Amino acid sequence: RVDQVPYEEVRAKQIADSIGAKRYDIINPCTEWCYEYRTFATPLNEWIGRPGYPDLEVEDIIPFVWQGFNPDEEIWWLPYQPDTRIFFYRDDLLKAEGLEVPRTWDELLYVAERLTKDTDGDGVVDQFGFGFPGMRGWNLTLAWVPLMFAAGGEMWDENLQPVFNGPAGVEALEFMLELKKFAPPDVTNYGEYELIQAAMNGTVAMGISATSITPEIEAANSPVKGLIKSAMFPIKSEDIDRKYNAILGGWAFGVSSYSTKKDAAAYVAMWLASKDISNEMEMNGRLHPARASA
Which of 20, 124, 180, 241 has the most crowded CB, counting CB atoms within 10 A? Predict the structure, then answer.
């Protein structure tokens, strides 16, 4: 049995299971939860290379993706889909207004204001200059992180102490509030799904999204196929020393510590993460596999 739930509910569902019903044999964290999930996961080293089990061909997994989930010799997670956040824009709408792709925050606010308009003349704004997943939760946090980087901030200092609540983090939050002026009125109800739909139906002209937007906007029946492009996140100002553009995300399979069928669960998780299966799944789905061979 497989439970399919929205991203916004995945973590709560799996954590609740770990302290309650304990039904899940295979668990499915993304990068931001993978250390927390170790408290109810099983290291997989004993199954890696075991005769009769799928060959993971770890050397084919993009190294920094593997290291993001497994930074040391203990193997907890089998990554199959990395992702990140992107700044996207409607190339046709910018060109129609004679606008360049914004490179700074001031330019972004100007372009967002220009692209916020009543397109059908009924007196109601129906195209908004900017969109982001504004619903409380991880999606909003992950949309904020690139803006914090764009203000010169970092997540951690050299001693791995959190510094994201410094001046750059505050400036990024304040900038999001400025961008919200040119976003749909209900943007605080937007998760990733709502944002992608808004990009596809023309409600937003620019925005911050996960890379999972790609297969949706480029589908054969997409009304915006070929019209949306991406660029570096606009920087606060040209004098900022930005070290990063966005943060690594992604998904992996693992085995729960409370599974009563660990051998079978490890086999299935390894099969799902194997080169042929994960590449087929990703190339026919989200379009960003963890494998270099893809």
Answer: 180
Instruction: Give DSSP secondary structure letters for 169-199.
Output: HHHHHHHHHHHHTTS-TTGGG--HHHHHHHH
Segment 46-90, tens digit of pLDDT: 999 999 999 999 999 999 999 999 999 999 999 999 999 999 999
Global confidence as pTM: 0.86
Whether the pLDDT of residue 229 is over 80: the answer is: yes
